[in-house]
Design a protein that fits this description.
InterPro entries: LysR-type_TF_proteobact-type, LysR_HTH_N, LysR_subst-bd, WH-like_DNA-bd_sf, WH_DNA-bd_sf
Protein name: Glycine cleavage system transcriptional activator
Keywords: DNA-binding, Transcription, Transcription regulation
Strand order of the largest sheet: 4-3-5-10-6-9-7-8
CATH architecture of the largest domain: 3-Layer(aba) Sandwich
CATH superfamily of the largest domain: Periplasmic binding protein-like II
Organism: Marinomonas gallaica
CATH topology of the largest domain: D-Maltodextrin-Binding Protein, domain 2
Number of strands: 10
Number of helices: 9
Number of domains: 3
Family: Belongs to the LysR transcriptional regulatory family.
């Protein structure tokens, strides 16, 4: 059955002409000539057997019929445009690789490596999502998850990705009063201690590893590592950070680690994926590449 629908060109010309109330400006927007737009409007009026505009010398006036038609047509054009954009950006399930990762871990460890994978495997469309809450792991929507050890999911396959070491860091600016002094682990107690709310044992474990005790570990606490990192860089105190997160700032001199060497922890970072996706090409390819990358460059 033939649909009683005018041409899309005529509708686009009509919509632009209503917004501008000018065939000339509508033509400029649509990269057409003024006469082409005028002809499309005339064809549309003949198609509808209604006048949509009143032409008064060089001025256009929208008729009541034109206003009513515009009101109905614009939402339909918006729907058509949105549907086309969704289809244009639609991803092939066979080539999409969706990775969920801890935000700071992704920023400081994964991202510097991901460009290489994308370049060597252009057949995969990569999506990286933030893993803010392990409980939100959705095996239907995610192919690979990079997470901190201890969180496991039913019917998931997990691989050791990285061990963890931590280091006590601070801004060099707060050490100015002690300039020239040789610092030891006990000197951290001369400064405010910065905390991560999700790792309440970080300071007690660090102090115990250095045979130190403190009556009070009070200090500012932060919800995310990137906040803790910035607080340390801006001189708020001493923070304990995973080495992979502190590495860049230590190299640039924004942070220093004068109290001791990095300490290994019993914790690890894992690479996991749903068991029913274990044979997907994108999962296998990325898994093998990243595990190899982790073994070569920490």
């Amino acid at each position: 059955m033939r649909r009683y629908i005018p041409s899309s060109t005529a509708l686009k010309c009509f919509e632009a002409s209503v917004r501008h109330l000018s065939f000339t400006r509508a033509a400029q927007e649509l990269h057409l000539t003024q006469s082409a737009v005028s002809r499309q409007i005339r064809n549309l009026e003949e198609f509808l057997s209604r006048d949509l505009f009143i032409r008064l010398n060089k001025r256009l006036v929208l008729t009541n019929t034109g206003a009513a038609y515009y009101k109905e047509i614009v939402p339909l054009l918006d729907c058509m445009e949105n549907a086309s954009l969704r289809m244009l950006h639609r991803e092939d399930e066979k080539t999409t690789l969706t990775i969920s990762a801890l935000p700071t871990f992704a920023s400081y460890w994964l991202m510097p490596k991901l460009a290489e994978f994308s370049k060597t495997h252009p057949q995969f469309q990569i999506k990286v999502r933030s893993l803010d809450d392990a409980a939100k792991f959705d095996p239907e929507a995610i192919d690979i998850i990079l997470h901190y050890g201890g969180d496991h999911w039913p019917r998931a396959v997990s691989h050791h990705l990285l061990g963890e070491s931590v280091v006590a860091v601070c801004s060099p600016a707060i050490l100015e009063p002690l300039k020239g002094d040789e610092l030891t682990p006990s000197n951290v107690l001369d400064f405010p201690l910065l905390h991560l709310t999700s790792r309440i044992n970080a300071w007690p474990d660090w102090l115990a590893a250095h045979n130190l005790e403190s009556d009070s570990l009070a200090g500012p606490a932060f919800a995310h590592f990137h906040m803790l990192l910035e607080a340390a860089k801006h001189g708020m105190g001493v923070a304990i950070l995973p080495s992979i997160i502190a590495k860049q700032s230590l190299a640039s001199g924004e942070l220093v680690a004068p109290f001791s060497q990095a300490l290994d922890t019993p914790h690890e970072y894992l690479l996991s994926y749903p068991a029913d996706k274990a044979d997907l090409e994108q999962v296998v390819t990325f898994r093998d590449w990243l595990l190899n990358k982790a073994s070569v460059t920490k």
